[in-house]
Write a structure and sequence with these properties.
This protein has 188 residues and is mainly α. Helix 2 packs across helix 3, helix 4 crosses helix 7 and helix 5 packs across helix 8.
Length: 188
C-alpha cells in the first residue's frame, strides 16, 4: 500500500473523529514542516509556533483536501502561506523596533570586526524576496525537488526554477560585494 493511500485512509479516520490518526499524520509530517519553518525564520521558537499554526490550519481545513495529490504537497502549501504570513508580521515588528534602535544609536560608530560567512549569508538571504528565499531554502537547503516546490507554492515548475535562479544570482551578487570577487566565483 502506498504512502498516499495510507494517508488518505488516515484522513478519513480523522474526519470521523479519530484522534490517534490525527496524531499519526502529525508525527509523519511535523519534522519536515518544522525544518522548513526554521530555515525560513532562523528562530526556533517562531518555527515551532508556525509549525503548530500550520497543523491547526490544516486540520481545520481537512475537508478541503480532495486527495487528488499527495497530502504532503497540500500541507506544504499551507505551511508556505503560514510561514510567509509569519515572516511579514515579524518584519513589521522588527521594522518598528529598528526605528527605535536607530534613534537611540544615532551617531555611534559601527563595530569594526568583519562578521563570518554565515552571518553574511543570513543577511543576504534576508534581502531576498520572500518567494525567492523560500525556493532557495526549500531546494538548496532542504532538498525539495522543483516539482515539490511548485506544488507547495501552487505555481508552475518553471516559476520555481526561475525564482531559484534569481535567488542564487542575487545571493552571489550580495556576497561578492561583502566578501570580494573571489567568493562570488565560488558560489556559481
Amino acid at each position: 500500500m502506498s504512502i498516499e493511500s495510507l494517508e488518505n485512509r488516515m484522513i478519513l479516520r480523522i474526519r470521523g473523529g479519530d484522534a490517534l490518526a490525527e496524531r499519526q499524520l502529525y508525527d509523519a509530517h511535523v519534522d519536515r514542516i518544522y525544518r522548513l519553518a526554521y530555515r525560513m525564520t532562523r528562530d526556533g521558537a517562531l518555527a515551532e509556533d508556525l509549525t503548530q499554526d500550520t497543523f491547526i490550519r490544516a486540520f481545520d481545513r481537512l475537508e478541503d483536501f480532495r486527495g487528488d495529490g499527495p497530502f504532503g504537497a497540500w500541507l506544504h502549501r499551507i505551511a508556505t502561506s503560514v510561514i510567509c504570513s509569519g515572516l511579514r508580521k515579524r518584519k513589521r515588528r522588527q521594522d518598528r523596533e529598528s526605528i527605535r534602535e536607530d534613534l537611540t544609536e544615532f551617531g555611534h560608530a559601527a563595530p569594526g570586526a568583519n562578521p563570518d560567512l554565515k552571518r553574511h549569508l543570513d543577511q543576504a538571504m534576508e534581502r531576498l524576496e520572500e518567494n525567492h528565499r523560500l525556493v532557495f531554502v526549500m531546494h538548496d537547503m532542504e532538498g525539495f525537488t522543483h516539482q515539490e516546490i511548485a506544488e507547495a507554492m501552487d505555481s508552475p515548475v518553471g516559476t520555481a526554477k526561475a525564482r531559484l535562479s534569481r535567488a542564487r544570482a542575487q545571493l552571489r551578487e550580495l556576497l561578492t560585494g561583502k566578501l570580494g570577487p573571489d567568493m562570488g566565483m565560488r558560489l556559481e
